[in-house]
Structure formats: structure tokens, C-alpha cells
Amino acid sequence: MGRPPCCDKIGVKKGPWTPEEDIILVSYIQQNGPGNWRSVPTNTGLMRCSKSCRLRWTNYLRPGIKRGNFTDQEDNMIIHLQALLGNRWAAIASYLPQRTDNDIKNYWNTHLKKKLHTNNSDQGNHHHHHHHGASTSSSSSEATTIAKGQWERKLQTDINKAKQALTEALSLDNKSTTSWPQTTTIPPINHQPVMLPPPADNSIATTYAFSAENIARLLPNWLKNSPKSSQTSSDSIETLNHQFASDHGFKHYTNSEISETTSFLQDESKPGMEVQIPSLSFLEKCLVDDAAAQGHEGLMNMCLEESDSLF
DNA sequence: AAAAGATACAACCGCTCCCTG
DNA sequence: CCAGGGAGCGGTTGTATCTTT
């Protein structure tokens, strides 16, 4: 029971996370920052393996995550990036800072793949493996697979270099690792190609409000599943958020404010109320520039044209 | 109204890469 | 240089929810 659980089969909980576990995890990370996942289960008493904790945080509880309601711009970016990079979801996700690789992967598998397929068959002629065969790759020959892999690797390296240079040029470097949570840099990035818009001055307050919001978003489900604990969870989040905010001199977000934000984020169908991805055109332009340097103007011009029409 | 089928997505598993001693 | 272990990635699965019959 009271032994250090680490990915052994016995005593390590699996399956869906409970609200109580979420709160424990979030409050621990608020104090210590993300990373060093090995220590999380031991220090928090969570009967989860470190891997599970990391996954829960990066894919679900991490602040600033936008869920569902993919915009057309995002659709296009994902489609183009997938064509360009293949199923390298982490790389793709680095261009969509609000989305997780898992989310993008799921969205691709459930929506976009289908959408693309139907579009292709609507056009009559099925052009064979136009996206380097990277998409499903099941039927591509061995030779092309190898070539594809090398090409992708090289391309990604170059993209990273370009982005790094760009980041430095903007003196936007990420020294975030050591100083959680006092810095103004956005802390919880899990993908290497970091290219983010400059964080706002109040980014931390917002960040933690988002974190609470992520949890608050779960409340309806919690209510449904365990009416007894949900009130407790709600209160705990409130307390937690308040405590952290006052500890660090930030604005305290009330529940109503949080739910307001939540409903705002969730209701993207409202015309004119759509949440724009910050610097999306900027991000995409960088992508275009990088790819153009690699001599893939055709594909990327297409990308540009489509995005131009969208902006 | 209920059962069956389809879909969406959170979470897990296994593998690879990379860091440290 | 090498071995061990942690972190991260992509594929896959299990299950809750939605849709159809």
C-alpha cells in the first residue's frame, strides 16, 4: 500500500483520472512545476506511474489547452503539416501551441483522414500518394519509406534550425526550465520546436486560471458520475486557485469568471466570437518560408493561397 | 423505447532517444 | 565508450456517448 509506486503492476492505478487525483496533480505542479515526473507519484502519494501523471498533465490539465472545435485554419494547418511531416504529431503540434499532439492525432484519425478521403474520391481521380506517402504509409514501398524518412528528418532539422534562429532574433529565448513559476515565459511546453508568441504580462495569472478552467470544465461530468465528490472538487479548485493567486499577487479568478471564459472558449460557433490562434499567420508564414527554402514551393504556395483566402 | 452500431477521445503500451554516471 | 533509466513519441485500445434502426 504505502510503497513507492513506479510502473510496477501492483499498486499502480490505471484508467480514467478522478477529480481528486487531478487536483492533487495540479496543485503539486503549481508548486513545483512540470517535469521530474518520477518524483511526482512519490511526493504526492498518487498511486499512478510517472508516465500517467505526465500524460494527464500534458494532454489534459496543462494550462492553455484548447479542446475541440477545430477551426478551418487549424484543419488546413494540420492537413498540410501532416502531408509535409507525416504522422509526427509532436512536430505538428508545435505549430499549434494550444493543441496537444494527442488531440491532433485523434482529430486526424477521426475527422481529417475521412474528410481528405472523401474529398479525394469526390474529385474522381485518386492521385497516388501525393503527400509523399506519409499519410497512411501502409501501402508505400520500402524504398520510398526510407527516402521519406530521411527527407522528413532533414526537413525537420532545418525547420528547427530556422525556428531557433528566428526565436533568437526575436530574443524570445526560453530560459523557462529553472524558474517555475516566477518567470514570464510560458512554462509547460512539451514539444521541442518551440515557437510561441510573446507571453502577455499577466500570462501566469491567465495560465493558472486556465488550469483551473481545465478542471472546471470537467465538473459537469464529475457531477454526473459522483455527485458527492464534485462539490468538494469544485471548492478545492476554488481554494487552490485563490491561494495560488494571492500567494503570487495575481488576480483571483472566481468560479463565475472561469465558467464565463469556459463558455466563451467553447462557444466558437458564434460568428465574430471566434477565438483566433495568436500569430497563426505568423506561424504559418514561417512554415511556408522554411519549406520554400527546401524547394517545395508548389505545395507551400498552395498552402499560402488557401490560408490567404481564409484571412 | 430499446437495442445495435458507429464514433470520439482519454489513456495505455511499447518503442526510441537521450542524458547521466 | 557503455549501461541504465527517464522522458517523449506514435500506435492502439477501451469505453462512454451519440446515432441509427
TrEMBL record:
Main location: nucleus
Ranges where the HTH myb-type domain occurs: 9-61, 62-116
SUPFAM superfamilies, A to Z: Homeodomain-like (SSF46689)
GO biological process: response to auxin
Region (Disordered): 117-147, 171-194
Stretches assigned to the Myb-like domain: 9-61, 62-112
Cited InterPro entries: Homeodomain-like_sf, Myb_dom, Myb_TF_plants, SANT/Myb
Domain of life: Eukaryota
Molecular function GO labels: DNA binding
Compositionally biased region (Polar residues): 173-187
Protein name listed in UniProt: Uncharacterized protein
Gene Ontology, cellular component aspect: nucleus
Keyword Translocase on entry: no
Subcellular location: Nucleus
Keyword vocabulary terms for this entry: DNA-binding, Nucleus, Repeat
Species of origin: Centaurea solstitialis
